[in-house]
């Protein structure tokens, strides 16, 4: 019965959230730590270079509650809303993950999170997972060789943890969506089929997309043509940057600018792409937030370079995700598809 009520509760939440998504989402990063060293992520870059940030490692539950309440009071969100718990770090490392989920639920937020699945969250028997609308498992391929190249984790351990998280969340009333975000690199297209079989075995979705430089500073350098040669060489060997570059154009609009983005210390950041500090969240208002994103030189440069358009990458990857729904993924076709994109006339000036 409890299970049924939880499912009903989460369905009602998701329906209310989906009914009108305007001013519905905020991003509050609950962790300032990640245990991976991914080559194309800015946190991985910092981990490999032993760069640490001052400040707290995990957001206090009380502060999290205050931020959710403030966002609602100041109309950053209205009605049933969504809070994303990750930006550049690993949310499941939070030592009191269940209390974070409970706080979100009490404040009428659904939850989205993305995890590398290297650690299992600490949960209690009465943990209520019904507010979790979306859990994304970020995978750099489906073999130990791919994990050695990017996340540097034990592949079997990750598979075990993914299965365990799906099972545990479902047992605790999660009715939300689980997705394997499969980062398609040049070296792992042949692993998609196995990833799909694994996703099917857990009754979860596979969501492949072409990997790119998911690292604000290095991405900017790439667009400006100032990336160091060794990094650029790896980009040309591993990624499908040209696929994106031929489609992305300067814009006057940014799809992510609308979402309040707060770091673990309660400071506003420019967005999920850029770390520029904008001051304490409790001094921010929606009007000030909008004005900053219209006038700030960082946003102006970002839009002029086409970087703001990067959020449209989901649209570009849509055919790939549709393709993944077929019974058998033909990776030869997939590679040909990517190469055709790169070789089309519009891509002539694209970088590797
Ligand atoms: S991509 Fe994810 S798992 Fe990898 S270093 Fe970045 S935050 Fe950590
Ligand atoms: S324009 Fe660029 S820096 Fe500004 S919010 Fe959008 S993605 Fe972030």
Description:
With 352 residues, the chain is α/β, with parallel strands linked by helices. The chain has a single domain (2-347), classed as TIM Barrel. It has 15 helices and nine strands. It has helices spanning 2-19, 42-48, 61-73, 97-106, 144-149, 155-171, 192-201, 216-224, 229-238, 241-245, 286-295, 297-305, 313-316, 318-323, 331-343; strands spanning 25-28, 81-84, 109-115, 132-139, 177-184, 205-210, 260-262, 267-269, 277-280. It has a seven-stranded parallel beta sheet. Helix 3 (61-73) runs parallel beside helix 4 (97-106). The N and C termini lie far apart (55 Å). Residues 341-352 have low confidence and may be disordered. One iron/sulfur cluster is lined by residues 34, 36, 38, 41, 43-44, 88-90, 116, 138, 151.
Write the element-wise H/E pattern from the N-terminal end onward: HEHHEHEEHHEHEHHHEEEHHHHH
User: Got a strand count?
Assistant: 9
Helix/strand structural class:
alpha/beta
**Distinct ligand kinds:** iron/sulfur cluster
How far apart are the termini? 55 Å
Rounded radius of gyration (Å): 20 Å
CATH domain fold name: TIM Barrel
* DSSP helix fraction: 40-55%
Mean pLDDT: 86
Total number of domains: 1
How large is the count of helical segments?
15
CATH architecture: Alpha-Beta Barrel
CATH class: Alpha Beta
* Unreliable stretches: 341-352
CATH homologous group name = Aldolase class I
Gross morphology is globular
């Amino acid at each position: 019965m409890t299970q049924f009520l939880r499912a009903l509760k989460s369905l009602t939440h998701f329906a209310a959230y989906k009914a009108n998504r305007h001013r519905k989402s905020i991003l509050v990063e609950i962790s300032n730590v990640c245990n991976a060293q991914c080559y194309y992520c800015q946190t991985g870059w910092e981990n490999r270079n032993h760069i640490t940030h001052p400040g707290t490692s995990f957001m206090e539950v009380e502060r999290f509650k205050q931020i959710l309440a403030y966002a609602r009071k100041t109309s950053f969100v209205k009605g049933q809303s969504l809070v994303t718990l990750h930006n550049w770090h690993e949310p499941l490392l939070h030592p009191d993950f269940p209390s974070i989920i409970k706080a979100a639920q009490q404040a009428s937020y659904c939850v989205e999170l993305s995890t590398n699945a290297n650690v299992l969250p600490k949960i209690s028997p009465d943990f209520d997972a019904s507010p979790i609308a979306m859990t994304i498992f970020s995978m750099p391929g489906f073999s130990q060789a791919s994990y050695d190249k990017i996340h540097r984790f034990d592949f079997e351990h990750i598979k075990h943890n993914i299965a365990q998280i799906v099972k545990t969340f479902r047992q605790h009333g999660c009715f939300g969506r689980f997705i394997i975000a499969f980062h398609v690199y040049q070296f792992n297209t042949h692993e998609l089929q196995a990833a799909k079989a694994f996703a099917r075995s857990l009754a979860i979705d596979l969501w492949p997309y072409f990997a790119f430089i998911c690292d604000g500073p290095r991405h900017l350098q790439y667009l400006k043509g100032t990336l160091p040669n060794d990094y650029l060489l790896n980009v040309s060997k591993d990624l499908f940057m040209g696929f994106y570059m031929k489609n992305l154009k300067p814009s006057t609009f940014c799809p992510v600018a609308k979402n309040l983005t707060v770091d673990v210390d309660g400071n506003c950041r420019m967005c999920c792409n850029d770390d520029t500090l904008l001051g304490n969240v409790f001094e921010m208002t929606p009007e000030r937030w909008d004005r900053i994103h219209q006038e700030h030189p960082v946003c102006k440069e970002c839009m002029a370079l086409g970087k703001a358009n990067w959020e449209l990458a989901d649209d570009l990857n849509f055919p790939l995700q549709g393709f993944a729904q077929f019974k058998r993924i033909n990776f030869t076709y997939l590679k040909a598809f990517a190469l055709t994109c790169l070789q089309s006339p519009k891509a002539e000036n694209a970088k590797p």
